[in-house]
């Protein structure tokens, strides 16, 4: 699949970005893909290319752009390597809800301005922390996000005043959330709290739990699951095909 490397201007400087598109002539529906905590890397580019092959122009932005030219993580060892784990978690913690919202406006604006993209609204999808970012983007850019997905997103409905479920009444997109049976970051009580928030807000939402572990959709995750990954692609294609 073709790929275009470019930069996106944000209030805190330029951010690296990559646009994966299908073969042939566009324009196509736009999709914003938020990686997991490991950030943009070859496995995530492969995922964006696969999604592009289904007929979408897929934007990958560098959410860690405020950290400059940061060194990539080895996802096979990062959680067992204490210094690397601490570096990773420090970068994750730096992505406050406020900064995610600021960046979301920049990402969506840049994607919709691309000549490869048609329409006035996009889809979003995210993995692990990217699942939270996907839903937060739908809430903070409600008129420009028509479909939003989260896969093994963690802490989607916590007691934190900034928890993304508290923004459900702002969402206008159709939402799909897939958790995992083995995922302590999104237990049943959070799932029910999120479902209740969507229901109270009148959000069209589907919540499912896959028989897999946290990280099931990402090819280089130690807990990757082939069947769950394929199921997630099928769910995404249905969601975006119906709304974009």
Helix-strand blueprint:
Elements lengths: L2 E8 L2 E8 L7 E7 L7 H12 L3 E5 L20 H12 L3 H17 L3 E11 L1 H12 L4 E7 L22 E9 L5 H14 L3 E9 L12 H18 L1
Parallel strand pairs: 3-4, 3-5, 5-6, 6-7, 7-8
Antiparallel strand pairs: 1-2, 2-4
Helix pairs in contact: 3-4
Structure write-up:
There is one protein chain. This protein has 244 residues and is of the alpha/beta class. It has a single domain (3-243), classed as Rossmann fold. It contains six helices and eight strands. It has helices spanning 42-53, 82-93, 97-113, 129-140, 188-201, 226-243; strands spanning 3-10, 13-20, 28-34, 57-61, 117-127, 145-151, 174-182, 205-213. Strand 5, helix 4 (129-140) and strand 6 form a beta-alpha-beta unit. The radius of gyration is 16 Å and the shape is globular. The two termini are 20 Å apart. 44% of the residues are buried. The model has no long low-confidence stretch (mean pLDDT 97).
Order of strands across the biggest sheet? 1-2-4-3-5-6-7-8
- Please give the number of β-strands: 8
Secondary-structure element order, N to C: EEEHEHHEHEEHEH
Q: Structurally, how many domains make up the residues?
A: 1
The main sheet comes to: 8 strands, mixed
Count of alpha/pi helices: 6
Percentage of residues in strands: 25-35%
Class per helix and strand makeup: alpha/beta
Q: State the end-to-end distance.
A: 20 Å
Radius of gyration: 16 Å
CATH homology group: Alpha/Beta hydrolase fold, catalytic domain
CATH architecture descriptor name: 3-Layer(aba) Sandwich
Roughly what percent helix? 25-40%
Question: Low-confidence segments, ≥5 residues, pLDDT <50?
Answer: none
Which geometry do the CA atoms define?
globular
